[in-house]
Structures are given as C-alpha cells and as structure tokens.
Amino acid sequence: MIERICEKPEIYNIHIPLPNNPLKNLNCYVMKTTAGSLVVDTGFAKQECLDALTAGLRELNVDMDHATLYITHLHADHTGLVDCIRTDQTRVIMGTEDYSYMGKIFNDEIWPEYNRRLIEEGFPKADILTQKKENPVVIYAPKEIFAAEPIKAGESFFIGDYEFESVSTPGHTPGNTCLYLKKEKIMFTGDHVLFDISPNITCWPFVRNSLEDYLISLDKIAGYDIHLALPAHRKHEMDVYERIAQLKNHHIKRLQNIFEIVKKKDYQNAYEIAGQLRWSLRENTWQTCPIRQRWFATGETLSHLDYLVQMNRIIKVKDGDLFVYRAK
C-alpha cells in the first residue's frame, strides 16, 4: 500500500507490514526529486517486508542507482533490508553513533551483555534462552553490517536543492536520529516520536541513562520549527508538540508508578516491578504474555529504574545473584 503524503515536495509512504508484531507496520518514506530519490528506513529482513518494499519502490519508479537511503537507527525493522534493495551506486547514510554501536552488536558485545543484565535483574534465564530464538530484533536483523556513510550530529546532506539535517536524538537507541528537511520544515521522526504508541526506551549496555537521554532529545525536537512530522510507525494525525508533551508526561507518570511500587515494598527486583506495571498487552496476566514482550517491558522498566537511581530517589543493592531496589 502506498500513500501520498505531500505534493510539494513529493513524498510517499510505503506501508511495510510487520506480521505478528505490535508495531503493525513500518512507514517507509520516499521523497522523489529531479536529482534522485530519498528512501527512509526499510523493514525487517523478512519476505513479506521485502515484497511490499520492492513493489512500492517499483510502483514509484525509484531508481536505487540514483537514490539516497537514510537509516534513522539500528533496529532490525529499520535496517533489515538495506542490502536487499541497495545497489553499488546507492548512497546509504546512517548516524555515526548508531552505526558504531551496530558494529558492537555484530562483534557480539551487546545482546549477551544486555541479557546478562536482565538475568541479574530477575528475568528468568530459561526465558532468555527461549526469546533469543523468536525475538524479531535478532532473527530479522541484517546478517552482517552493511556499508554506510556515517553522518555526525547536526551535519547535512543534499539531494539537488533539498537540504537534510541529521538530528541526534539518543534514547530509543544510543544513536537514534531524526531527519529534518530544513527549508520545508518536515521532520522524519523515526521511532523518536510516535503518535499512538510510546517508543520503547530500554537500558542499553554502555549507556548511563537511556531515559534521561530520551527526555532531553524530546526537548531538542520540540525546539525545531516543524510543519509536518512523519513517524516510522502507524499514524501521524496530531500536533507534534502536543505529542511530545504527552510522551514526557507518560514517562513522568511511569517514574512515579515505579517509585510507588518500590516504596511500598523494599528489595524487589526489576522483573517483579515490571510485572506490577500497566502495559498495552492483550494478555490478562504478566506471566501469560509472550516472552519477548516481557523482555521488552523489563528493559523499559530498567531504564526508569536507572533514572530513579541516578536522581537519587531509589537505591540499588545486590541480594545474592540478583539486584534489588528500595526507596531512598
């Protein structure tokens, strides 16, 4: 399915299905110019995604020999198909920080460390082993790192007369970016600002405080003059500044909820705390929801616990093999 977003500049959205995934779809944006096309993000390395993407590019007559492919961040639903659609002439651009972090993932430095921490925070070890076999973050990612041109925060590139600024917005990933079409005041927000779901903010290895990074990045985007905001998933039907305020309020409430849970009972681990929070899950209980959803939820809980520890609101201590928390 292709949706025309605007006439001038000429921007389209290729809806890439994400089967059996709560995100539902990826919005792959294509901007056509006389100097070539811009393509933003790709989809999972999965046949359904590839079929939709290639059909959309073909319908829009996109010549990848004369295209710039911009990747907003390292997640598999954005990077999975890069090598499937690029040619030797395609210019691939990605933020320096996330491109470097992807290198650590392919050197096997990230997911083992991430899962080791989850186990120390109470996540069942057996479930960690199970989710590795079914987690789309892992199984639908590129098989090797793709060649790309790293772009630094605040740097611009041009397609004809159109200038695009790469905006560093760490939080959702360590080097997450948005892409700003400067004169036209259009912001491709990637997963940084989503409009009917909240972006997952997790406890990335080697990152001190992912949630703090994210909240700072929301304020940064709010400082831009944006006439049109285009998110990577689902809809974009409300004011971006109002949505930024909603996202900040969501995390403030989540921090308060977690603090109250910790305050009510000392020495709970992160997995136990996560099970007491309200999540957008179809299942009735924490234990019956899919392992990968508990994996994501525990990681997000940890980013909030890290924030509260850094703010000196709670204390983290070791209890045997596990870390537990108590109110300050």
**Cα gyration radius (Å):** 20 Å
Give me the side-by-side strand order of the main sheet.
Answer: 1-2-3-4-5-6-7
Bin the strand percentage. 15-25%
Number of domains: 1
End-to-end separation in angstroms reads 52 Å
Structural class: alpha/beta
Give the second-level CATH assignment, the architecture.
4-Layer Sandwich
Low-confidence stretches: none
Gist of the model:
With 328 residues, this protein is an alpha/beta fold. 36% of the residues lie in helices and 23% in strands.
SSE map:
Layout lengths: L1 E5 L3 E8 L7 E9 L2 E5 L6 H13 L7 E5 L4 H4 L2 H4 L5 E5 H11 L4 H10 L4 H10 L1 H4 L9 E3 L4 E4 L2 E7 L8 E5 L4 E5 L19 H13 L5 E4 L8 H25 L5 H5 L16 H20 L3 E6 L2 E6 L1
Parallel strand pairs: 4-5, 5-6, 6-7, 11-12
Antiparallel strand pairs: 1-2, 2-3, 3-4, 8-9, 9-10, 10-11, 13-14
